[in-house]
User: Fold this.
Amino acid sequence: METVSFTEMKHGTQADYLLLDRYEQAHTATLADRLLTALMGLKRGLAGYQIDRLQHSLQSATRAEQDEADEEWIVAALLHDIGDDLAPMNHSEFAAAIIKPYVREEVHWVVAHHGVFQMAYYAHHLGKDPGARDRYSDHPFFESCVRFCEHWDQPSFDPDYPTKPLGHFEPMLRRILAAERIQARD
Assistant:
């Protein structure tokens, strides 16, 4: 494999950075494959629920699709908890960071904040504030996040729910990740 000439970024040449850009484009093109693998890993994640985290994600996406949501919402519902294993204390922000370049601001914001909005259902059992989401009550996407949680996220722990398989959502995931909406990188 061809490599750059530098050991410090500040000493890189245009040829070095063109090489890295080619590698990055090739790597980015396989993001959907890596996300599908990560979703499969949710089968072995957080225990205690009646279904695994993959089934929860699939149920959320199935519900979004049945509500005739667009593909950005469906993919967001599919990926919203993908951070459970690697970022359990900020899984919402983790998932939101992944989808940010590919979805509109509303979808990104909802995924980024769904964790605090979900607390309305359980926080009182743990001595925490179930009204934590109220600090966002004036935000233009507040109601979207309430709907996301109420209709797609919180009811999706049912072992008897007719859930579509991952393969059903794979083409949508690939289309969203191929979107032209990609924002400039930092």
About this structure: Residues 105-122 form the longest helix (18 residues). The domain at 12-177 is CATH 1.10.3210.10 (Hypothetical protein af1432). The two ends are 26 Å apart (CA to CA).
